[in-house]
Amino acid sequence: MPVYEFRCGDCGARVGILTRSIGAPTSGNCERCGSGKLTRLISRVAVIHAQVNPDNLNKAELLQGVDYSNPASMANFFRKMGQTFQDEKNEHMDEIISQLDHGVPVEHALEIDDHSGHDHFHDTGPALGGDD
């Protein structure tokens, strides 16, 4: 049984109306003011992604073409990872991507402060490498 959302034309309240089935006629009144002047809204939808098995991922393919020192390249990489793995909106990751899209250097956007001299962006160790 779907719930359709409406906006009240008199008081502006958001109203949810439960219907018996998709396509069934909907009518009702505002829960706040009782008005019948309701305008249907476009509701948020959920997109379900297929479950990703990390054991079957080709890491080399996922990392192909990524320039770890280029903010735009890293923003695209994080977007791709979000589409592949993320079930829910992640505001922290959205903020990082926004910073990278605006040209903030990668190490600043990722808050990397490494005084050891180790170069995280050209590391080919086990975390990034491999031809799985």
How do the helices and strands line up, and which of them pair or pack?
Elements: E1 3-8, E2 14-18, E3 38-40, H1 59-63, H2 71-85, H3 91-101, H4 106-109
Antiparallel strand pairs: 1-2, 1-3
Quickly describe the structure.
By secondary structure, the protein is of the alpha+beta class. The chain contains 4 helices and 3 strands, in the order E-E-E-H-H-H-H.
Features of the shown structure:
elongated; 132 residues; single chain; 3 strands; 11% strand; three-stranded antiparallel beta sheet
Number of H- or I-type helical stretches: 4
Overall tally of domains: 2
Sheet-strand content, in percent, reads: 5-15%
**Low-pLDDT ranges:** 119-132
> What would you call the structural class?
alpha+beta
Instruction: State the end-to-end distance.
Output: 45 Å
C-alpha Rg (nearest Å): 23 Å
Mean pLDDT: 77
Number of DSSP-assigned strands: 3
Q: Could you state the order of secondary-structure elements as H and E?
A: EEEHHHH
Helix fraction by DSSP (H/I, runs of at least 4): 25-40%
Largest sheet at a glance? Answer: 3 strands, antiparallel
Biggest sheet: strand arrangement? 2-1-3
Shape descriptor reads elongated
